Please model this.
Amino acid sequence: MESSTPHRRVYQRRRCPGMNAAIRAVVRTSLHMGIECVGIRRGYHGLINGDFTKLTFESVSDLSRRGGTMLYSARSEEFKTPAGQERAVATCKMLGLDALVGIGGDGTFSGLLCLAKRTFRCGHSRHH
Model:
């Protein structure tokens, strides 16, 4: 996915109401601003293993009416290790991402802090 357009990643970890609506809002706003979006499936596990999908206006059009989580959710014991975090950063670099948007709770936020300490720019939208 080579492009001069900045990439933003949408990521979700935990199941909670409003996650699909939050993803839809981030994707539509980003695309309106000319920022390409990539969704990471299954949280940090997907980040480590490169499980991603391009997100478009069409892919999120009916998202606010669907239950569940479009990007699924998973826990990752490997991400808790320095080696797992380095693999996650390597995936971000491989995809050419310049930012992450995390949608979740305390675990998501803690993971983003770990990545930020490894010099990767992260944002967080907290849902309860």
The radius of gyration is 13 Å. The longest helix spans residues 19-32. Residues 42 and 73 are 4 Å apart (CA to CA).
